[in-house]
Write a structure and sequence with these properties.
The chain is of the alpha/beta class and 313 residues long. The chain is built from 9 helices and 14 strands. The chain has helices spanning 12-24, 54-58, 75-92, 108-118, 160-172, 188-196, 208-220, 251-261, 281-290; strands at residues 2-10, 30-33, 63-70, 101-107, 122-125, 128-132, 144-148, 178-182, 200-205, 227-231, 242-248, 265-277, 293-301, 304-311. It has a 7-stranded mixed sheet, with helices on both faces. Strands 2-3-1-4 form a 4-stranded antiparallel sheet. Helix 7 links the parallel strand 9 (200-205) and strand 10. Helix 5 packs parallel to helix 6 (188-196). The longest helix has 18 residues, at 75-92. The chain starts with a strand and ends with a strand.
Length: 313
Amino acid sequence: MDWMELIVHTTTLGSEWVSDFLMELGASGTMIEDKADLPDPSRPHGIWEIIDPKLLESMPEDVLVHVWFAQDASLPGILSRMRDGLDRMRNKRPEYGSLQPELHSVSESSWAEVWKKYYKPFYACEHLVIKPTWEPFTPKDGDRIIEIDPGMAFGSGTHETTGMCISLLEENIRGGESVIDVGTGSGILAIAAALFGAGRVLAVDIDPDAVRVASENVSHNHVEHIVTVQERDLLKNAADTCSVCVMNIISDVIIAFAASLKEHILPGGLLICSGVVKERTEEVRKALLDAGYEILKTEFRGEWTAFLSRRND
């Protein structure tokens, strides 16, 4: 199938809204190019050891949100709604940048080559390496490795929000916990939870393509005996409960569903959430507190925030 690639020029602050808006229009995947997501080259350990430093020089000054739409009969209407929405937001939120769109026709095989150019092995935390399936890597003593084929951009793990969620999972999984990963995407957080010692992981997503990609990645990493991937809305089945819930998703979803998620978290259980731009940190914090969570930790990386909270009632 051929795809229409849409690239929107924005800022770090605007990337969350742009990505969410385009996904709501029916985009099949999203990729964000943001210099702020690349680490400081002066850091002595981590992602920069593996990524080519020339990558920073080659990245655009604007933040670019890439999405893909199938080239079918619905595309003209989608593009019309896209332009109207960008025009309205451009006037309302100048801090979101130009919001100028570009359109390119690409094949799925051409899209795959984009990932092979930018996606290299990296340390998500001190001893957890995420690597694409096509890249060689020699681990250090104590390293765990997740091999990922992100498919149509459902999460490569490079984003700072993913890194914070992984670090919080590593800190809080002691062994045997039940975990639910809400909006699993490519399955990285679910797989990481399994490697850290979780006894049971449920990974859910409403997108069938994400579920397919996550299932393949779970199988490839040999954790299918721990991780179950399902296509559904978690909130429609209150029978599933966990001691740790993780969601790397947009702020609006966290705010809207923080209270409802409590049905799925055992008393004393943890909620790890990220996908929150710094501008909305206090808004999300208030939603968590209003829903009855105790906030144990707040982390910041770049322009992003993550929360570790506990259900006390």
